[in-house]
Amino acid sequence: MKKTGKAAPKKQAAKTTTKKPAAAKTPDAVPPKTDAAPLDLATLRERIDGIDRHIQELIGERAQFANQVGKAKGKLAAAVDYYRPEREAQVLRRVVDRNDGPLNDEVLVRLFREIMSACLAQQEPLKIGYLGPEGTHSQQAVYKHFGHSIHGLPLASIEEVFQEVEAGHADFGVVPVENSTQGTIQSTLDMFLTSKLKICGEVELRVHQHLLSRNGQIEGIERVYSHPQSFAQCKAWLRQYLPRAEKIPVSSNAEAARRARSADDSAAIAGISAANVYGLKSVAGPIEDRPDNTTRFLVIGRELFPPSGNDRTSLMIFIKDQPGALYHVLEPFAKHGLSMNRIESRPGHTGLWQYAFFIDIGGHVHEEAMRRALDELADYAQEVKVLGSYPVAIA
């Protein structure tokens, strides 16, 4: 049923498309008919060159229109004022909806993300803070969400990412919040207890871990550096292949790679990008215990953005100490048809044995159902803080 509903608008769109006139303008870009005789290699390459020229012209045209959009908004203070995450999410969802292959959704989303990133950077590159140094999975998450036409700011800790965004030195920050194997990154949640920043987006990144060393040999490795989360994600592999090696936790996998490059008896667990940055070789990989190992990152900024049409809202709720309080806090969301995606409790730092509940709900805070549900929390919630409403991760 899903495919039937998806195909109908495509047929209608084909009736009103202007593809045929465009093809007539550049006949070398017209693909051969499937029932025609196979073309020789020289002709195929000529057709591809024609398509490339046409694509380049269209990208240039898009960049010109994007520049006009920036001028239409008037003179704004900085690049961050031109960035609209809800608009980007809508564009990328349409890319996915239109996709009939042969390239998969993830590839097409990445291509369009880079085009939008380059067009936005005509005004000024966004400054994005992330947990560094260079070569971390956090940096990969930055590029996946914002594209490469940004100015990355590698920082020493999650706390420093929050501080730099709050101070305005970074336009946005990207921080890890949970891993599918090892659960929540508690230091990120704890920052929201006092921070005024808002969640503006989320990124889901498939995390592949590699054992890296200077000479690429597993023999002679006596110590392994890595972030504690990565050690936990690879514990079965380490137990089987390096049971006697010393495991030394460090602040990031990139820091692990930096240390491992100093001796042949040292290795690091990190992403393959860290090997490229620090001149290491892959000994083995991927070595994570679960092939679906995924880390979710949050994009943090200084303001809420309008709905995109498929959003998630993150809340921090302090509950009054009374029987059934948690049940009554969750009840309004079910009553108004809102799905709870996640719940996590943390010490509230407001008193002994007091806890804050972090809850993710499907929907946007500006939507009527969400507003009504939040209004009904007053009798049972001591405090409700909207951490952000943001587009659900795409591909």
From TrEMBL:
Biased composition (Low complexity): 14-34
InterPro entries the record matches: ACT-like_dom_sf, ACT_dom, Chor_mutase/pphenate_deHydtase, Chorismate_II_sf, CM_dom_sf, CM_II_prokaryot, G/b/e-P-prot_chorismate_mutase, Preph_deHydtase
Location of the Prephenate dehydratase domain: 127-302
Sequence ranges of Basic residues compositional bias: 1-13
Domain of life per record: Bacteria
Pfam families: ACT (PF01842), CM_2 (PF01817), PDT (PF00800)
Annotated region (Disordered), positions in chain: 1-37
Listed pathway(s): Amino-acid biosynthesis; L-phenylalanine biosynthesis; phenylpyruvate from prephenate: step 1/1; Metabolic intermediate biosynthesis; prephenate biosynthesis; prephenate from chorismate: step 1/1
Domain Chorismate mutase, residue spans: 35-127
UniProt keyword Amino-acid biosynthesis present: yes
Keyword terms of this UniProt record: Amino-acid biosynthesis, Aromatic amino acid biosynthesis, Cytoplasm, Isomerase, Lyase, Multifunctional enzyme, Phenylalanine biosynthesis
Subcellular location: Cytoplasm
SUPFAM superfamilies attached to this UniProt entry: ACT-like (SSF55021), Chorismate mutase II (SSF48600), Periplasmic binding protein-like II (SSF53850)
Statement: the UniProt record of this protein carries the keyword Lyase: yes
Residue intervals of the ACT domain: 314-389
E.C. numbers: 4.2.1.51, 5.4.99.5
Catalytic activity: prephenate + H(+) = 3-phenylpyruvate + CO2 + H2O; chorismate = prephenate
Xref: PANTHER family: PREPHENATE DEHYDRATASE P PROTEIN (PTHR21022), PREPHENATE DEHYDRATASE-RELATED (PTHR21022:SF19)
Function, in words: Catalyzes the Claisen rearrangement of chorismate to prephenate and the decarboxylation/dehydration of prephenate to phenylpyruvate.
Protein name: Bifunctional chorismate mutase/prephenate dehydratase
Organism: Lysobacter auxotrophicus
Recorded name of the encoding gene: pheA
